[in-house]
Amino acid sequence: MTITVGFIGLGNMGLPMALNLCAPEFALWVYDVNAATADSVIARGGKLATSVASLASQTSLICLCVRDDADVKAVMMRAAGIIAHAAPGTAVAIHSTVQPDTVRAVARAAAERQIEVVDAPITGGAEGAKARTLAYMVGGADAVIDRFRPVFTSSGSTIVSAGALGAGMVLKLCNNLITYLELIAAHESVSLAQSAGVSVEALMELTTANGGMTKTMRAFLENRTHGPAKYGEAVMRRAFESFAGIAEKDLDCALGAAADCGVELPAGTLARELIRGVYLAH
User: Is the pTM of this model over 0.85?
Assistant: First the structure.
């Protein structure tokens, strides 16, 4: 049985995920504000919708991989959005990293039109999407998650059930918090080593051997150190500016969720202040 899927947002993560859905078991419709990003999907058999409304009216499962809370709310709730144009029984999976309350708010609005929502943020990066090794953190009704399982497994090798609606997003925010604190530790340890005349190579050898330097930390330092020579200073500057903006947004989400729960995150608060300088090596 062919599953009709809509995918909105063909960015760094969304595009390789959509390409994985260009397969006989799926009938894929895609939409992005930049229609040219869909060219590779169309070349592999996907179809380009002219609007969110058009995509919503033709698909039964819809994946959202847009930038932030404002984008999720707009795509879901505006007059030309999913809720207004999808048929009852349609289900939506939110892959974007947003506030748990955003997930619950759009789910309440969707339920009034008998449209179901799950949160399904992802980790593993664009390379993980291409390799089909992403990890999904899912929250919501088991029956809806099961409907999406063939879609998720087209790009992922791990699906972690977090619990009720919004719990997948909490799990993603916790994961991101760990990652950004790791990057700060990597940045500061390199700064100390270099300032004290200890080679970064010696630091890397030690912390790789004892497990103190994770794969993510090593990749970050490698890109920040050697990326400009490999790809060009301007290219890497733009990339790290973008990554810094995403990190700030993710940390704002984590701190907002913590405030809603009455939990203090002192290291997370400091990370929010420091993270741009870490990416830009200030």
Answer: yes
